[in-house]
Amino acid sequence: MSGRSPASIRDDVARLVGADRVVDDPTRIARARRDSWVIAVWRSLQATPPPPPACVVRPRSTAEVSAILRYASRERVAVVPFGAGSGVCGGIDPDATSIVVDLGEMRALRAIDGHNLLATAEAGLLGSEFEAALNDAGYSMGHFPQSIALSSVGGWVATRSAGQFSTKYGNIEQMFVAFEAVLPSGEIIRTRAVPRASTGPDLRHLFLGGEGTTGILTEVTFEIHPRPAATERQAIAFPTMRDGLETLRRIVRAGWRPAVLRLYDEIEAGRAFAGAIGASESLLLVLCEGPTALVAAERAAVEATCAEAGGRLVGSGPVESWLHHRNTVPGFEVFLRQGMIVDTIEVATTWDKIDRLYAGVLTAMRAVPGLIVASGHSSHTYPTGTNIYFTFAAKPDDSADIEALYFRIWAAAMEATLAAGGTISHHHGIGRVRREWLPRELGAAYGTLVALQRALDPAGIMNPGALLRPR
Hints:
There is one protein chain. The protein has 17 helices and 18 strands. By secondary structure, the chain is α+β, with helices and mostly antiparallel strands. It folds into 4 domains: 6-104, 2-Layer Sandwich (Uridine Diphospho-n-acetylenolpyruvylglucosamine Reductase, domain 2), CATH 3.30.43.10; 106-226, Uridine Diphospho-n-acetylenolpyruvylglucosamine Reductase, domain 3 (2-Layer Sandwich), CATH 3.30.465; 230-325, Alpha-Beta Plaits (2-Layer Sandwich); 332-433, GMP Synthetase, Chain A, domain 3. Helix 9 crosses helix 11 (292-308) and helix 14 runs antiparallel to helix 15 (402-419). The chain is globular, with a radius of gyration of 23 Å.
């Protein structure tokens, strides 16, 4: 990378876009130098935390983003895009000579087009702000990641996110219609908002899951939906997790698409819904929404399918409880200060492999000394398979060994996932925590991904170290 000093880079950026765009507040600078990855949080708590970047700049227009990238490409200065910092995989880790481009000033809602069911916003707009504006106009995007109040709409695309209502509405790739972006060279590109096009490879996929390595999104257009006329909720208990997984398969195979299908294993169900189920039961949460007649038919069909599989209707209480608490989770810092480390790992596979994946990952993690508990639930289901979202807590004898223990557990989970024929990431992306396993999953195609990224970014300035191995 560049041989320029941090001070000279900061001065150059201030002259380029204005000193008022360069952040001086130490607290804001510290927040923009990392995402919410638990290891980044842990490192920030140490006596000597990682150094700050050369500068944090908050552009207010696509033209200013373009100017920054032209400069960075010419001078070979690393650029790290920052949306809202909710990522949990280590996607943001600038060094002392990097420019962090914080899109927090680019958060305008450009348009809500109810006739064509489209909405356009600048990439820095928070997801909760976007959804609230849609709701006020009588619409919803139907995209509800747990981090909706902490994540940006551009970040949703960059990490290939999934929302809690994905079984009905799809994931971000089904909702993402058009974009404006700045390439590493500084060139601005834009695509058209059309229902579908057969005009060569789909350029949206340069940025879907790109994690800031292919350029910077500045504006996004999404498909939206009228707010649903009716909603129905039901929880069903199953004797085992395996019974519940097979029931998920039958529901979606028949063509039903409840907005929410969340199946908790006995550990997670017992922890969150102890009063509603037996000691060893798994629990399925179902939420149906849409036109009144469709919702009534869907609920009846789902309940019948569950009953045929040995499920026991519990009522709407657990679903109501989940809706109330679904986005409330304690921060990692609470556990780290007690010498514990907690994290989640979401993977996925096809129906014929899901039992092996679920059991194999839990067995592998539980074999690591220092693990306290590991559990899982399915939160996103498809006709071809489902995901498992694992949660673990661990505590080494010496807190100095937290990182080593953490990476041993992750390695066990990744190896077991690959052995079961699964994907190492369902919706949180790669960042740095999964980076070394990506070539294993992609095989020869990994070289194609590297070649594509290098063609777009020959100087290697865009978020180096995230997604792909460093050059």
